[in-house]
């Protein structure tokens, strides 16, 4: 059994509440990051009538899969393409009406930087979500969303 704390809560309950407070504070702090770049990203997506292609590698790829699934389930045509596979033909279906969202904490992932010229050649717009606004991926993007963690 979980021991009871001085407040009458079990350790598990106290820990769960602490984690939720930390997460709630982190979500509340995101408001300060929403500005011109966010607005630009929204305008890019709304101006295009194609699909949203989400890409990334590693943990960023896992997050990208969830983002693509969420967009698709809310009515935005979207799918995930792994960045390592994208350079080997999977981006051939991109049209100028599409938007590519590339996720990378470092903004320097070789797999993503390799596909940037391919995305641009196809005429699609690029939105980068990175933890480093001065990264190569962020600089190449039409809009950058700060995904840095504190």
TrEMBL record:
PROSITE patterns for the chain: SIS
GO biological process, one term: carbohydrate derivative metabolic process
Stored Pfam families: SIS
SUPFAM superfamilies, sorted: SIS domain (SSF53697)
GO MF terms, alphabetically ordered: carbohydrate derivative binding
Residue intervals of the SIS domain: 41-150
Name of this protein: KpsF/GutQ family protein
Source organism of the structure: Thauera aminoaromatica S2
């Amino acid at each position: 059994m979980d021991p009871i704390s001085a407040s009458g809560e079990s350790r598990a309950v106290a820990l769960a509440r602490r984690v939720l407070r930390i997460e709630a504070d982190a979500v509340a702090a995101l408001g300060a990051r929403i500005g011109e770049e966010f607005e630009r990203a929204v305008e890019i997506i709304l101006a295009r009538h194609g699909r949203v292609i989400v890409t990334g590698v590693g943990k960023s790829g896992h997050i990208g899969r969830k983002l693509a699934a969420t967009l698709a389930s809310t009515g935005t045509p979207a799918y995930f393409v792994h960045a390592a596979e994208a350079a080997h033909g999977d981006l051939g279906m991109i049209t100028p009406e599409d938007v590519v969202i590339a996720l990378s904490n470092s903004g320097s992932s070789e797999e993503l930087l390799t596909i940037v010229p391919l995305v641009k050649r196809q005429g699609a717009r690029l939105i980068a979500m990175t933890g480093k606004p001065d990264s190569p991926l962020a600089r190449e993007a039409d809009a950058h969303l700060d995904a840095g963690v504190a």
